[in-house]
Amino acid sequence: MKYSQLFPKTLKQAPSGAESINHQLLVRGGFIDQLFAGSWTLLPLGLKVVTKINQIIREELNSSGAQEMQMPLLHPREIWDQTGRWSNKDVQQIMYQFKDIHGREFGLSFTHEEIVMNLLGKFVKSYKDLPLKLYQFSTKFRNELRAKSGILRGREFLMKDLYSAHVSEEDMYIYYEDVKKVYLKIFQRMGLDTKIVEASGGVFTDKNSHEFQVLTEVGEDTIYYCTQCDFAENKEIYQDREGSKCPRCSNKIEEANSIEVGNIFPLGTKYSKDMKVFYTDENGKEQLIWFASYGIGPTRVLGTLVEIYHDERGIIWPESVAPYQVYLVGLDLEGERVKGEAERVYKLLQAEGVEVLFDDRVGVSAGEKFADADLIGIPYRVVISKKTHSTSSGQAKDKLEVKKRDEKNTHFVSFKGLISLLKDS
Length: 425
Ligand code: ATP
Ligand code: MG
Fold this sequence. Notes:
Helix content is 30%, strand content 28%. By secondary structure, it is an alpha+beta fold. It folds into two domains: 17-311, Bira Bifunctional Protein, Domain 2 (BirA Bifunctional Protein, domain 2, 2-Layer Sandwich), CATH 3.30.930.10; 326-424, Anticodon-binding domain (Rossmann fold), CATH 3.40.50. The protein is elongated. Bound molecules: adenosine-5'-triphosphate and magnesium ion (MG). The site of magnesium ion has 3 residues, from strand 13.
């Protein structure tokens, strides 16, 4: 991609009222745009990052035996009446509900348990059809009271939601524990350290759920965790405890702010019972299906990554989710020779399968280009200029000036050297 073609360009200033770092940097860098509070466009650069986040999730879920599908977002009231959630006061706080012109009631999806259970009712007959692990990436709508914090809290946002169905509680918990490990790996591949925190089930279940929390001062959540063992609880359930020592190992408990990037729920048989969804066991007897759900918010992950990985000049993307690997800066492009050389390197990198954003602007200062490189935060900056191609002996040096986004110093490498640098990382 050539920067001259990229939509849109970077902004010098953060939009007024943008309080959080992710809001400021993602908007200035041209990753996202706000339509109204809590409603965002993923611009080409932002969509590229989210696509990489999603691909990591997809790869790990597929290897856990899950299958991807896609469900509707517009839901008729009747299906939500089967579990009573349509009329639940807490649900009504966040679910967009409305009537069409004929008076028929609909809601916009804020989650999909009812829809999945309806599918299971149609297709699962016997124990031989289970277990099932089904997931999707889709938009969720929630009428969030406060939609600040940039893209961390949207009224319309992206969620990966996975649902699993089982013959027994035991089988459900085996997969539930698998997903814990899978989630840790997913987040770790994106560069996020997460803590597994016990929480209540909210509007989903009476059972406790588990949140995946990234510790950061700017997080809206408060968690309590043991400094020695892996005990961790969110504020809601921790405040009922007595004393300030770990209930498991008596060591010190710390309080921290954090961002919830994932949440998993062992729902049990509540939904199959309400919606009368059974399978036939080996003895021909009807049994309730055991059910669990698992969410990750890719757009919240996008914002979380920026909160964790930035400096005063801009974003510093982890390589696994960066929109491009190389920001190729062409300087002195008024000169035909340097321009030709920059174009040549751009094509060679692409031929090697490297994702390159080529700053091909003519008449823009080096300082401005470097500032944009830092703001956008691509892991490697490669400069081609008169200097890198000076010809004391009449021959180009064939050296590229490389700098990693998170390092101070530049160094010179050959094209081959650059390729092995990129492939090794
Ligand atoms: P929160 O407590 O932050 O409101 P939640 O517990 O209601 O979130 P879940 O229903 O568990 O959220 O949703 C699963 C995942 O979807 C969350 O872990 C988070 O990553 C993401 N998510 C939830 N609400 C939002 C939102 N309003 N904007 C962006 N992502 C969200
Ligand atoms: Mg949650």
